[in-house]
Specification:
The complex is a heterodimer of chains A (320) and B (287). With 320 residues, chain A is mainly α. Chain A has helices at residues 9-28, 31-57, 65-81, 89-111, 116-135, 157-180, 182-192, 194-199, 204-230, 240-253, 260-278, 283-297, 301-312; strands at 146-147, 232-233. Chain A has one domain. In chain A, strands 1-2 form a two-stranded antiparallel sheet. In chain A, helix 6 (157-180) packs antiparallel against helix 9 (204-230). The longest helix of chain A has 27 residues, at 31-57. With 287 residues, chain B is mainly α. Chain B has one domain: Orthogonal Bundle (ABC transporter involved in vitamin B12 uptake, BtuC), CATH 1.10.3470. A two-stranded antiparallel ribbon of chain B has the order 1-2. In chain B, helix 2 (41-59) runs parallel beside helix 4 (94-116) and helix 9 crosses helix 10. The relative contact order of chain B is 0.22. The chains are: A mainly alpha (320), B mainly alpha (287).
């Protein structure tokens, strides 16, 4: 009588169905709603991309937004330099993702030797270092950033919305495959006990670097699309608050699950937006209190809570 | 000209380093005892700055008189935080304490923003400068640096020569063994956390004489403190002083001979390099 969870297949179907519904709403409504949903989908993609490494392996990454910012800058630089022979914009975006994942390998190679809190603090340091270096690089426009208006095809929110929707589908499917694969099992073993995992023959270092750079790829793609949307790349893309947004969404939904980032991001996005509009001056206080309450009383997130309730009722069905 | 600039750079680096060291002493005690990285440290520093600023602005008090007030506020805040929050999350996985303290940081910085406007302010107090030939030792940096060193020495005496201090050190090196020999570890946690927070707020009071104050200016102080704590070996106040000097000199030399903008980046790079080359810090023993 084993627990029935179908290896997360039902969770995958729920996630994809939700994404499809949001996608249709975004396409059929007016531009303001599309823009609102765009920001939500962006948070979703980022939360999923952080989940691939941080969620499954339990390593807290405070520097995920580096890859978002790098993707943004790559697209800006490419658009700026290839103005004579412009390519389709999605190629720029993919180049941004690839560049981000290459940088992630370079950064991850040394930094992933660290564990626990040390890793978290090191990523915080790397994040600020990258930001300060970009602010002081003349070729990247210093603190003014790079404006690419006129270097890219006409502004088209529906097209960019389609692009970010495709990314969302890709990252959800990808999360599912990682979850099911040897990589996912290895990462969860690392989360439980890294020394034991290593002793059992999990190549922890390889697994960590692979998943770290895969997460960076999707963050880079996401950053590339936002550059096209704003026609602008500037150092504020490296702001640590965005990483915190993703982490909170993950904590709220449930770390290392398929459904968690979805529930967490959507709920967090709507609540945060509401608080921002309703209490423009106090929203961070409310947010801080909510974060503390959440972490102390709901450590495994909403998915964990639902699973606990299901278990209490004697159901053998689990969300993943 | 060349020598003047060099001497001035060294003087500034040493003074700033000694001041930053005190902010990290608070963090190193908390991390040493409870294995919690106090990510709200920078916002507590800013709070300390505001204490001095407002005492000066409203009552025209000299910062020196404000220092005890800052310590008092730090003690109350530290004890309150411990009782209401930290008590529940000691000895849980790293993520939870980081997230809770991040929540504290968010509440603190936003409260200060709402209460005291998003302006950049400075404490308009000037202590006389000492001038040797072409090198100036600014009084506004010298006083806090001296106070910082004295505080660290007092702390060291307490840690080394009192029963209470020794039980703190025992808890730092192994809390299980400490509780086996009859030390009330929970009391040490409470006391250590309170002292750590009080020292951080106090360091903020000192920093108010050197740097301008803004409600959201906390993160760099947190990162400087992380760097100094890691470089100077976790749980070691003397290490903090030495590492503070190194970071102070590194940033001051970057500022003088390269650009001021890159100074924080140099410190963050030192942080990452320390992690990679010598994660146990300058004075740590390899396990």
């Amino acid at each position: 009588m084993s627990t029935k969870n179908l290896l997360g297949k039902s969770s995958l179907i729920i996630s994809l169905a939700f994404a499809a519904v949001v996608g249709i709403i975004g396409f059929t409504s007016e531009a303001a709603t599309t823009a609102y949903l765009y920001a939500m989908i962006e948070l979703l993609v980022l939360a999923y991309s952080l989940n691939i490494f941080t969620g499954f392996s339990g390593y807290i990454n405070f520097g995920h937004v580096i890859y978002y910012g790098l993707g943004a800058y790559v697209v800006a630089v490419l658009a700026f330099n290839l103005v004579a022979t412009p390519l389709p914009t999605f190629i720029y975006v993919i180049a941004g993702g690839v560049f981000a994942s290459l940088v992630a390998i370079a950064i991850g190679f040394p930094v992933l030797k660290l564990r626990g809190d040390y890793f978290a603090i090191a990523t915080l340091g790397v994040n600020e270092a990258v930001k300060v270096i970009i602010i002081n690089t003349k070729q990247l426009g210093e603190s003014r950033g790079i404006a690419i208006l006129g270097y890219i095809p006409t502004y088209d929110i529906r097209g960019l919305y389609a692009m970010v929707m495709v990314t969302l589908f890709a990252v959800i499917l990808f999360t599912y495959f990682v979850y099911k694969s040897r990589l996912g099992y290895g990462l969860r073993a690392i989360k439980d006990d890294e020394d034991v995992a290593e002793a059992m023959g999990v190549d922890t270092r390889k697994y960590k670097i692979i998943s770290y750079s895969l997460g960076a790829f999707f963050a880079g793609v996401c950053g590339g699309i936002i550059t096209l949307l704003y026609a602008y790349a500037f150092p504020d893309y490296f702001v640590i608050g965005r990483t915190i947004d993703m982490l909170v969404a993950l904590v709220l939904g449930g770390f290392g699950t398929i459904l968690g980032p979805l529930i967490g991001s959507v709920l967090y996005y709507i609540v945060k937006d509401y608080l921002l509009i309703r209490f423009p001056f106090y929203h961070q206080i409310i947010f801080g209190v909510a974060l503390i309450v959440l972490v102390i009383f709901l450590p495994s997130g909403i998915v964990g809570l639902i699973n606990r309730l299901l278990m209490k009722k004697g159901k053998r069905f689990r969300l993943e | 000209m060349f020598l003047d600039l060099l001497a001035q750079t060294v003087v500034t680096g040493v003074l700033v380093g000694l001041i930053l060291a005190l902010a990290s002493v608070g963090m190193t005690i908390i991390f040493g005892i409870m294995k919690i990285f106090n990510i709200a440290s920078g916002d507590l520093v800013v709070l300390g700055c505001y204490v001095i600023f407002w005492l000066n602005a409203i009552f025209a008090l000299d910062p020196i008189i404000g220092f005890p007030v800052a310590i008092l506020i730090g003690v109350v805040l530290g004890a309150g935080l411990y009782y209401f929050l930290i008590r529940h999350i000691v000895r849980t996985v790293g993520l939870r304490s980081l997230m809770v303290l991040f929540g504290v940081s968010s509440i603190l910085s936003n409260s200060m923003l709402v209460a005291w406007e998003p302006l950049t302010r400075t404490v308009p107090v000037f202590y006389p400068n000492l001038v040797f030939a072409d090198v100036t030792i600014p009084g506004n940096k010298l006083l806090p640096a001296i106070v910082s060193v004295i505080t660290t020495i007092v702390l060291l005496v307490v840690l080394n020569y009192t029963y209470f201090g020794r039980s703190i050190r025992a808890t730092v090196s192994n809390w299980r063994a400490a509780s086996l020999v009859g030390i009330n570890v929970n009391k040490i946690y409470a006391a250590g956390f309170t002292i750590g927070i009080a020292l951080t707020v106090f360091a903020g009071a000192l920093i108010s004489l050197v740097y301008p104050i803004e409600p959201y200016g906390g993160l760099p102080y947190s990162l400087y403190a992380f760097t100094i704590v890691i470089l100077g070996t976790v749980g070691d106040p003397i290490g903090c002083l030495v590492a503070g000097l190194i970071i102070g000199l590194a940033t001051s030399f970057t500022g003088s001979y390269w650009t001021q903008g890159m100074a924080p980046a140099v410190s963050y790079i030192i942080l990452v390099l320390t992690f990679l080359i010598r994660p146990e810090g300058l004075f740590g023993k390899r396990r």
